[in-house]
Amino acid sequence: MAASNSSNSLSSTFYLTGIPGYEEFHHWISIPFCLLYFVGIMGNCTILHIVRTDPRLHEPMYYFLAMLSLTDMGMSMPTMITLFRVLWSISKEIQFNICVVQMFFIHTFSFTESSVLLAMALDRYVAICHPLRYATILTPRLITKIGIAALLRSVFAMIPLLARLAYFPFCHSHILSHSYCLHQDMIRLACADTKFNVIYGLVLITVLWGMDSLGIFVSYVFILRSVLRIASREGRLKALNTCASHICAVLILYVPMIGLSIVHRFAKHSSPLIHIFMAHIYLLIPPVLNPIIYSVKTKQIRQGVLHLLCPHQDSSSGLERAMLAFFKLKFFQIMLIL
After folding, report:
1. 149 pLDDT band (50/70/90 cuts)?
2. In sequence order, what are the residues at sequence separation of 6 or more whose Cβ sits closer than 8 angstroms to the Cβ of residue 79?
3. DSSP letter assigned to residue 51
4. Quick one: which of 33, 43, 87, 228 has the fewest CB in 10 Å?
């Protein structure tokens, strides 16, 4: 019977959903999504290229930033093909095995990004509280181990959750509520006991995100304590300014993540538009805004972008100010789109 259920599930076809009630406007709605994906992909690829090619950025902080860009793209890009297939009226169908693969990438890189943000918080802690030992503590070897551990932790955590889906019969409606597959969306369609998936999912979120967020909080407690010991006001502001981009990145990931979890668990009967809106914010906001925030707040990244755009010109303050104004303008334009 289990094998039969597995076979039925693997051959099942599910149907994705666009924006309910606005089907005739899907082609127009796809335009801002195209812009957001373009900005996200170009921004993160630019960060990766600059960190790889600029020797001045071969430091722990920028290696972690490169990891953040990779996880941003890994979390958002799997949704791109199915989203535009729905919005461009190509097809709403998706096979079960493809759906599981898409879920695996979305959720795995979501957990990995949380781990990377924890690593970046530890990086800021070492840089501010132990500046003389910064290079000796955060060696390239240790950074590589942290990145691999963050990825493997997320992969092994997701395998039991998704493996169980192969044994669920889906005898209810096969219509998903998003234009891509999410685990919490899939299990509500199963006509079987999903208690393990529900409890395991909650434990996974509580343990992984809880541990990461607690680690970030504790890191900033020590950072704040160390900053308050600095005598000059300028020194305190300079130290805190190095953390501003990371704090924004943490909020950009955790606020939509918490909002989406609350909506799925406590607002199941609310308007479908709320669920869809929160899911898109959760997957699109981090990859779009993180490169812009780090380009605005981090001088070295800003200079790297300027050198990439104008390789034969000196990084004069005038050009840098113009580029800073450009990034701020783009940030506000993106916020208006959202």
Report:
1. very high
2. 102, 106, 179, 180, 283
3. H
4. 228
